[in-house]
Amino acid sequence: MTQRHRTGAAAGGLAAALTALALLAGGCTEAGGGVRGTPGAAGLRDPYFPKLGNGGYDVRHYALTLTYDPASGRLSGTADITARATQDLSAFNLDLAGLTVGTTTVDGAPAAANRAGNELTLRPREDIRKGAEFRAVVAYAGVPEPLTDPDGAREGWLRTADGAVAVGEPAGSMTWFPGNHHPSDKAAYDITITVPAGLEALANGVRTARRTAPDGRVTSVWHAPEPMASYLATVTVGHYETTTERPPGPVSTGSPTAPASPTGSPGPSVLTAAERSLAARTAALRAEVPGIVARQERLFGPYPFAVAGATVVADGTLDYALETQTRPVFPLASFDRTTLVHELAHQWFGNSVTPASWRDLWLNEGFATYAEWLYGEAYEHVPARKRFETAFAQEANWAFPPAEPPTADNLFDAPVYQRGAMVLHKLRETVGDRTFDGILRGWLVKYRHANATTADFTAYAESVAGRDLGALWAVWLYGEDRPSAP
Length: 486
Ligand code: ARG
Ligand code: ZN
Known about the structure:
Layout: H1 3-10, H2 13-25, H3 27-31, E1 38-39, E2 57-69, E3 74-85, E4 89-95, E5 100-106, E6 109-110, E7 112-116, E8 119-123, E9 133-142, E10 147-148, E11 154-159, E12 164-167, E13 187-195, E14 200-203, E15 206-212, E16 218-228, E17 235-238, E18 240-245, E19 269-275, H4 279-286, H5 289-300, E20 307-313, E21 329-331, H6 337-345, E22 353-355, H7 362-379, H8 384-393, H9 414-431, H10 433-446, E23 450-452, H11 454-465, H12 470-477
Parallel strand pairs: 1-4, 2-13, 19-20, 20-21, 22-23
Antiparallel strand pairs: 2-3, 3-9, 4-8, 5-6, 5-9, 7-8, 10-11, 11-12, 12-17, 13-16, 14-17, 15-16, 18-19
Helix pairs in contact: 1-2, 5-6, 6-7, 7-9, 8-9, 9-10, 9-12, 10-11
The structure holds arginine (ARG) and zinc ion (ZN).
């Protein structure tokens, strides 16, 4: 029997009578070994965003069924969340900002819902046993309000003239669906989205169906089975042109008999999109996506997802390009080859191997920046050492150590990107090219589709190198000051 019922008994009168009924109703649960749960934590104590995410459960799958009306800006949706309890639970939280919550159920039975700030608490009738899988279904609707990040960037569900674009790093996804919005809880996603006739609706993964209802509205069904952190979930609605490509052929041989890629994998299928007025002028660079991915497979190993791509949206919508899983999104102004290489590199560094907390963000940005340097060295004749020396000379890159941004406002500052990349270059020079290559590829295999911390990386690098690298980390990863020489 649950704590809740006992508390009710003390309230006397009617409550006691109800409690008696509840006790009777709950009798069989008791006989089966009733659970006495406690509420899951309202946050995961992230060093920068302590209330992001929630404790007590681990999401396995999100099925989001959305309808969007660009004219009114109204989004209505159902989030059907499959999770596993990691403790005996009497209640648990989801992160949700704005919107109005309708019916809420847990395992098909109505569950009480309470909201406070960005926390939605669901209290099921029966406590949930540790280890049990359960389903929470939340109906919701409203006009989503974007968030302003600590660094001033706007994110979340961003409305456009004829649609919307949803991006969520670090915290914007709570503006368009309830969830466990911390990068440490990755899950599979199925996103179904219905929009007015004539509009495109894109999301992560592979489109498995597209159907037109009698009223003309169009529903697209997107399947993204590989684990995904919620900040990488995306939706794009509007007038878009799309291009689909089969897995790319060989990068350089041009021979029909050569293996499809040096890794032996046929490579992912590719879907790129551009807002229709930008389609022609972005076509050439979008067509480079398969080739860039194939080259990156040579550098890092197999691409970790079934599909790749890029979506280009009009300027003024987004403050930043984002590596949204399988389909990074770019404002036109940042749709250039370097940024494309960067966001595609994040599919390995950040999306497959995901930081355990926001403190570990350099594992994304330092690595994606170094991926640009490696790509430039391998394919554009610019030695990484040169990029390293340029970055070393820039004052702004030394504001703080990459693994220790002072506050949430500094998460995306230059040191996380540039000093992060410098750490990797220094590591490479210290252990040699072959060992460095082994570290980079092995890291991606060991933590594929998982989460990792900075300590995981330093320990892994030392284990592959077979030596202590403490002095290197002390200066380049954690040191406050710029060393005297690059
Ligand atoms: N991850 C993005 C990149 O590839 C940047 C996201 C910036 N987010 C922000 N809130 N400033 O560089
Ligand atoms: Zn990045």
